[in-house]
Amino acid sequence: MTLVTRLHHALHAPAPEIVLLAGDERDEAISDAPKIDAAVLVAVTDRAEPGVILTRRTETLKRHAGQIAFPGGRVDPGDANLAAAALREAQEEIGLDPALVQLVGLADRYRTITGFQVTPVIGVVPPELPYERREAEVAEIFEVPLAFLLDTANHVEATVEWQGRDRHYYEITWGDFRIWGATAAMIVNLSRRLRWAV
User: Fold this and answer.
1) CB 101 within 8 A of CB 121
2) Per-residue pLDDT band at 169 (split at 50, 70, 90)
3) What's the CATH class of domain 3-193?
4) Which pLDDT value is given to residue 31?
5) How confident is the model at residue 78, as a pLDDT?
6) Taking a C-beta distance cutoff of 8 angstroms, is the pair 71, 41 a contact?
7) How far is CA 146 from CA 21, 32, 97, in A?
8) Would you say 15 and 96 are in contact if contact means Cβ atoms under 8 Å apart?
9) Is residue 90 classed as helix, strand or coil in its secondary structure?
10) Which one of 87, 129, 165, 181 has the largest count of C-beta atoms within 10 Å of its C-beta?
11) What torsion, rounded to 10 degrees, do the Cα atoms 161, 29, 181, 95 define?
12) Domain range list for the chain
């Protein structure tokens, strides 16, 4: 069974008992924030032990500076759909040719604290691609084993005080990389959705 088939089956299998993280709607501070559609590409490398391509954002960005993220961003009016938006953003940010991505499907949407409704788009890519980062947005491109990201033992719950109230979030540490916030939440959701051995 190919990686694409395995991912597709796991993503679309009935899962009535899964509890997913929906986002930060429970925080009054963002309850009235406008909803902006966005999409990210969860690019899974097609190898014996699959990995996931992630980026570290530059420190000069206005939003989420220095954070770990999937390639992606806001849906533009010219994008045909969410998958097209994710593929366009991945091409712009890391030089990924859309023709090299085998789309698997859409995962569960997540609402960020900044008002974005982010839909992860799962795709399989060949291993060892020569990525080219957009220097204004991406400081670094790296790959993390999918099995590591999906392992619940690596999902650490944390709390921080933000605007006078406790905010709960997940973080995942891979080497020197601290994955937290919306990206970690989407990974936690994927872990709960993709119930198969890697």
Assistant:
1) no
2) confident
3) alpha beta
4) 52
5) 96
6) yes
7) 19, 35, 21
8) no
9) helix
10) 87
11) -140
12) 3-193
